[in-house]
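Shape is hard to put into words, and the shape of a protein is harder than most. The fold becomes a row of whole numbers, each drawn from a learned catalogue of backbone shapes. The outcome of that step, for a single protein, is printed below.
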Amino acid sequence: MTSTPTPPTSVTPTIDIRPIQYRDLDEIESLLQANAFTAKSPSDELDLALDLDRIRHHYGLLKLLSLFPNPYRNLLRAYIAQCDRRLLGAIQVSPVNRTSTTWRVDRAIADPAAGSQDTGTVLLRHCLEAIWEARTWIVEVQVSDNPAMALYRQNGFQPLAQMTYWTIEPELLAQLGEREPDLPNLTPVSNSDAQLLYQLDTVSMPPLVRQVFDRHILDFKTSLFESILAGIKQWFGRTEVVSGYVFEPQRKAAIGYFQIRLSRDGSSHHEAQLTVHPAYTWLYPELLAQMARITQQLPPQSLRLASTDYQPEREEYLTSIGAEPIANTLLMSRSVWHKLRETKQVALDGLQLSDVLGGLQPSRKPVPGRMVWSHQSPQPVKDDHHSQNGHHEKRPQEQPGSQSQNGNGDRP
């Protein structure tokens, strides 16, 4: 008797996730040249796709900074997905706040031939599980980037806010800088002002956005180590950072803040951050005029800044002065508390009623006890109908010395 041969079973190759290494940079560059799937969040950090030459040149320093706690420890936090020694994709992440409770997906790269959605999902879920200190994740996606939007929605990201990026041309900047801004209480920023800037940042955001970013006073302070590294970075990058805030003496609070990164050689555009108290929207023209006057001392370049959908006054003002919107993005967020529900699937159809109510059963059989009354409750007074049916009602006790009479007035 001959036995039928068993058909070979297909084994699904496993995808391995590991931290990035120097030898992976060439493969990432080849993957990008082959029109790989990529999604980027606007960020000032090193970009895994745009700054490959800088990463190659400073890889040793970046690796050294990742070995001990410092503000630039996660400057190049990236993971690689590979299968059979073939690179399938990469992901770059970074913390948003000092406490590292909120992280951002800076760049996601995947090979379409291997399934960009599957590779991106594996990389995202690895970050959700490996970075244990993260409680919330955010990502910023172009509104027109449907594949990236589908990838993040599939992995639990929900819309948080809509972002609009604006550019102000040099000619318009020159016109805005002609008038003197009315800012009598404009003050330079120092570490002693961190409490005021934290309060301003808190009041300028909706509660949900504030909870996602989870900023504290420490996020508005700069250490000596950060100041030294920032100075070195500005010297090599030919940039300069100028910041200030408007102080309200009556309320003893900061009502406006700006920070502008200037390009000293005119090789790139200027970038500005603007925060205004919702009750002091008249500060928009004044702060923008102040920034425009600062840019007049440098080679002419455009100024770029962002606005959100919960800041309609800023968008109205930028539209009124002739600023041009250049990009529309969607800010999305996801909580890590969903991963327990996703990793452990529970079949609700197979549950029995006894299994669900089993925890409600007592641990032992209850023993009945005796009921003891502390005093006798008064009985209700019966009416005549009950007395005719054989029930006798209790007559009130007679006073001493009184004599009872029947209904006819005769003595018994």
